[in-house]
Model the fold of this input.
Amino acid sequence: MDMNELKRHALNVRRNIVQMVYDAQSGHPGGSLGCADILTYLYFVQMNINKDNVRTTDRDRFVLSKGHCSPAMYAILHEAGLLDEDLKTFRQINSKLQGHPNMNYVDGVDMSTGSLGQGVSTAVGMAIANKLDKNSHKVYALVGDGEAEEGIVWEALMAAAHYKLDNLCVIFDLNHLQIDGDVEDVIGPLPLAEKAKAFNAYVTECDGNDFESLAKAFAYFNEPKDGPTVIVANTVKGKGVSFMENNYAWHGSAPNEEQYNIAMQDLKEEN
Amino acid sequence: MAQETRNAYGEKLAQLVQENENIVVLDADLTKSTKTVEAKKVCPERHFNAGIAECNMMGMAAGLAASGKTVFASSFAIFATGRAFEIIRNSICYPHLNVKVCATHAGLSVGEDGASHQSIEDVALMRVLPNMRVFVPCDQYEAKAVIEHVSKIDGPCYVRLGRGKVEDVYNENTVFDFDKVDVLRKGNKTVLFAMGLMVQEALKAAEELDATVVNVSTIKPLDEESVLELLRTHEKAYALEEHSIIGGLFSAIAEAKAKTDITTPLYPIGVNDTFGESGKAKDVLKKYGLTAEHIIEVVGK
Done:
């Protein structure tokens, strides 16, 4: 694992996230920037996905349960050389790059998501299918902390533990912010780690913006177990763009030209 | 003979799950009621109980289907289509996944459990979804044939099944064509379009009314060509359904008719935008006007 290479990929992903949302003048930059390192680690280290197997299900699969972070999804597929579509078409008419991902339009999008909570549930179905097919492929689902307010997330975890889905890794992206503000001010979904433990998952926490910390968390998932793993990844919403960091106003708004220029300056190679 | 359509489902599914190892069955703590228990008996390794969590069951169904499985997911109609509606919409219909939602205990004939359990909206809810096909078999033979039929379709399907015994309309030698409506009886002037257990009531009423009786078991896609031709060749028409008169069979036929210049009057006989109540199924059906006697009274006027 070359840390500098991973950092370079993550920086490219972040630049494309900002570019796409700026071009479309629409989309969700905050959460996308925050999870860029998690996706970079998954697609460049953890998962066995590549050009030869991307069109099949005979590989590890990833469900972006927080489907509004589609800019991060498309940017990572682009960075990994798995995306044919032009990122400039994001959210435009006739594009395959829908505002929320559609599995039938884009190879490498493993589930159509957007309605929060459902992705975890579908990942449970995929993990059961892998068990039935006796393959060793893993299923990953990325879930927002605000998203954890949806009851189906916990229904899904209950089923994952009951069916001993050791091939399932649910990653909570804990950035403490949702559209209306701090998750604890809005309704209070925390603590996630303790809740997941109570649902009989194997739980570990990490810094979701640090590759060494992510490496340890995924190494924990890789260890043999008899149930699902939950990684609570602490992240900074808007990570990498100074004025977007830890500011919920950037959950779902696009930068203007001035802000775009500052953002791209923040995300310059030499920084 | 009389048999529950849910029993026919359980029996047929048990057969299919043995013949086709790609089939996976899901239930939400109602295996004995929905009869998926029959599939579980013969193939426990491909039967998964989601517990009382219908939303997660539909999500799991989507994930299994996205992995190439043909999934049958069952619960009571009210929970399968109501509670889990938006999961069916976004995780099953939008990605066009191969999930068969086979829901039992539909309609007022649930009886004693009362209005909370009597689904009168399920056909409307499923019919409005893009990519979804909707089937309402009227007896055990048609139910078995529908289950076999949907198992061969690539994409989402909804099958509406009932709790109580219903008289046979068909027999084991019947060959079904689910692309077409089935004219069961040819009469004069009046045509009765019926779905589910209203087919039997229509047949009883038709003797006295000398009406044409049509079983519409494929609600979507509707065989518009035949329906419109039947409207053209009769003086008045009725849509009979154990379902709200909003959004179900009456609506489907009215929508087809409204796109044409056909002037044949069309009336609904169904649940009149009201909730049901507890009681023996036959008493509830009688009170809410879903009987041959009521059809005769209304049509005979």
Remarks:
- Residues 3-266 of chain A form a domain with the Rossmann fold fold (CATH 3.40.50.970).
- DSSP finds ten helices and seven strands in chain A.
- The longest strand of chain A covers residues 168-174.
